Known about the structure:
Number of helices: 7
Strand order of the largest sheet: 6-7-8-3-9-10
Order of helices and strands: EEEHEEHEHHHEHEHEE
Amino acid sequence: MFKLDKVRYKNIISVDDLIIKANETTCIVGESGSGKTTFLKLLNHMVNYSRGTITYRGEDLKNLDPVLLRREVIMLPQTPVIFPGSVRDNLLIGLTFSGKEPVDDNRLLEEMKNAGLNKSLDEEAEPLSGGEKQRLALIRVMLMEPGVLLLDEPTSALDEGTELQIIEYVNNYLRSKEKTLILVTHSRELAKSMGDRLINVNKGIVTAVEEVA
């Protein structure tokens, strides 16, 4: 899915040679401030690397339209954007941005149940808690069905029980849709439970890639 060759971004990221495979879950682990989020941003060209080459499906990222790329490779930040309006408005706005048809309320309620978001579609989104906002934003990007999902600490505001429910929700989605997930997490335990491969980042340097047994 991605190939990185001698990639450098300022003095923050250094990747000599890395392949991220399609239809797998790749987890990025490392200490806080090690460059994990910046690494994720490189993959949908939210930051412009200064040296080297990144290809997506064999195409050089710098030759691709960034807007079209970000409809296919969607990143969900740790603190997601919540738009003015209702829960329904926030769930559907991603489909609007990506030029896709809206889905009906039954589909929205089904996804909310699967993600453990027990709210009314007509409820205002802004007063939701941090964990509820994370789940709302996660459902929004799932509905868009991107080819690659980039998640930055998607369960950081959740308790352990809800975290496990979200992991199951994401995994079921990936299996059913044959999608690629690249996930930043501080937890090696979470990475090993979800991931097919682990990427270790240490002070901006990709130090190892290991398969999960």
